[in-house]
Amino acid sequence: MKRKFILIVLVVLLGSGAYWGYLRYKEGPAQGLEATGTIEATQVQLTAKLPGTLQNFTIKAGDPVKKDQLIATLERNDLVAQKERDALGVLKARAHLDDLLSGARQQEIQEMEIAVSTAQIRLEQAARDYERAVALHEAKAISQADLEKADYAYRQAQN
């Protein structure tokens, strides 16, 4: 009986010690530092909201700077390039408009007539090929795939 009692007391003491150790571990070391005083920045990282090249610095290294003070100007070469591209686009559009307003030249008219004539010939040939393919398919001389190819070629020629 005495042994049981000693064993129970030993288990309770070990359990209590483990629980106390767990609470100390969970608590962790004291973190942070409390102090009073004033904080002053001696250096500040400056960044621009837009990409560009810094030009015309108004201050020197080591000079004190106040809030909202102009330090340098930012040159945006990409905006200049975009403006030039847009101006060239306007000139190109005006030249195209002038060509359209001046009307078609005789050579352009002939080229378009030849293109229309060629397209008409291709359409007629595709129609004949399609009719032949239908007849051959009905006679079981060509496959369904060949008939579909002829049909596709005919529809393409119509467009």
Order of helices and strands: HEEHHH
Report how far apart the termini are.
107 Å
The portion of residues assigned to helices is 55-70%
Radius of gyration: 44 Å
Count of alpha and pi helical runs: 4
Shape: flat
Instruction: Return residue spans where pLDDT drops below 50 for at least 5 consecutive residues.
Output: none
Number of strands: 2
The largest β sheet comes out as: 2 strands, antiparallel
Largest sheet, order of strands side by side?
1-2
Bin the strand percentage: under 5%
Could you report the average pLDDT, rounded to the nearest whole number? Answer: 83
Q: SS-based structural class?
A: mainly alpha
Task: Please name the defining characteristics of this protein.
2 strands, 63% helix, mainly alpha, 159 residues, 4 helices, two-stranded antiparallel ribbon
How does this model look, in words?
The protein is mainly α. The chain contains four helices and two strands, in the order αββααα. It has a two-stranded antiparallel ribbon. The longest helix has 33 residues. The model has no long low-confidence stretch (mean pLDDT 83).
Topology diagram in text:
Elements: H1 2-27, E1 53-55, E2 73-75, H2 77-102, H3 106-138, H4 144-158
Antiparallel strand pairs: 1-2
Helix pairs in contact: 3-4
Q: What is the gist of this entry?
A:
Helix content is 63%, strand content 4%. The chain is built from 4 helices and 2 strands, in the order H-E-E-H-H-H.
